[in-house]
């Protein structure tokens, strides 16, 4: 009913190290003309922090926070009436794993991880690429591709 088309993200691999460049291609296919603000590819980091639960029991709750969001505009505002392919490159910052707070190393870091297991706390970061045809006052055409940075 609301299907405007689809958007795909092609990357040769999904595991990257800090400082590397993610290269790929976004392919847009539209079924009928649609006015949009643009085509965007984003590298997004979302940290999920868990509180409570663990070995001690109790209520467990999760909190999500976007800790990184880098956008690249691939095409501008216009009426999209046919498909298109957009190559892209995103440079991963060398210090990206430090976003949202410092990472503890060695014995101290291991002690913190053990304490988080016992108390049910802890956090993890989900990294993903999001390609989007940004449709104003409408439903965006989106595609997510999970990536690993580390």
- The CATH C-level class name: Mainly Beta
Give the topology string: H per helix, E per strand: EEEEEEEEHEE
The amount of helix comes to under 10%
Give the CA-CA distance, first to last residue. 41 Å
Task: Return the CATH architecture.
Answer: Sandwich
H/I helix tally: 1
Question: Major beta sheet, specifics?
Answer: 5 strands, mixed
Rg (C-alpha, Å): 19 Å
Q: What is the CATH T-level topology?
A: Immunoglobulin-like
Query: Which stretches are low in confidence, meaning pLDDT under 50 for 5 or more residues running?
Result: 115-120
Number of domains: 1
The gross shape turns out to be globular
Instruction: Write down how many β-strands occur, each being a DSSP E stretch of 2 or more residues.
Output: 10
Strand order of the largest sheet: 2-10-9-5-6
In percent, how much strand structure appears in the residues? over 45%
State the secondary-structure class: mainly beta
- Mean pLDDT score, rounded? 84
Question: What does this molecule look like?
Answer:
- This protein has one helix and ten strands, in the order ββββββββαββ.
- The protein has a single domain (5-149), classed as Immunoglobulin-like (Sandwich).
- Mean pLDDT is 84; it is low at 115-120.
- The protein is mostly beta strands and 150 residues long.
- The strands form three sheets. It has a five-stranded mixed beta sheet.
- The termini are far apart.
- The relative contact order is 0.33.
- It has one helix at residues 106-119; strands at residues 5-10, 15-16, 21-30, 34-36, 38-52, 60-75, 78-80, 84-91, 122-134, 141-149.
- The protein is 9% helix and 57% strand.
